[in-house]
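Record format v2
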Amino acid sequence: GQQLNQSPQSMFIQEGEDVSMNCTSSSIFNTWLWYKQDPGEGPVLLIALYKAGELTSNGRLTAQFGITRKDSFLNISASIPSDVGIYFCAGRLDSNYQLIWGAGTKLIIKP
Amino acid sequence: DTGVSQDPRHKITKRGQNVTFRCDPISEHNRLYWYRQTLGQGPEFLTYFQNEAQLEKSRLLSDRFSAERPKGSFSTLEIQRTEQGDSAMYLCASSPAGTGNEQYFGPGTRLTVT
């Protein structure tokens, strides 16, 4: 089963607001990835993180690899309508190539 | 288009029938992964290939499931004697040689077993 806790489960925000979501794990990961998935499509890679403490940006998205290696955060600044979708975190343990996935954060922008 | 492609995008089948899905990875990627995703969940790992070798299989992959990557390029996932519980999105991903961290996904095949 999944070992990542992703929160919040869903978010209702106004266009232009900033968004924050996070994932925590009881295990230490050596990689954190953040994906976005639109309905009926596969996940699209947004940001990859490889070092504890690393802060990486991709446009309006910023993600951080937690110092303890057990958590990661994704922030979206000044949200726009095309940001709606489900955001997944995924982490990789030292021991194998499998990705462990969170259950997703559904982002909904209020009209 | 150099992304991961999957065929078909949708498949409706009757319980007990066999189905086969195809995945074409990004051409220079030597690693290929299959995942299953149900509504409201993240993808669940099924199996992984490095070139033509199947290196890892999840215990989710029952005996009715088989995957191949005969020439280290495209891969097929076959489900025999489908059950209603097999209804899900089947996702394929590929990653380049090296650490294999960054996996790039195809659009998925949506399977509905009636």
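Chain B has a mean pLDDT of 92.
The two ends of chain B are 34 Å apart (CA to CA).
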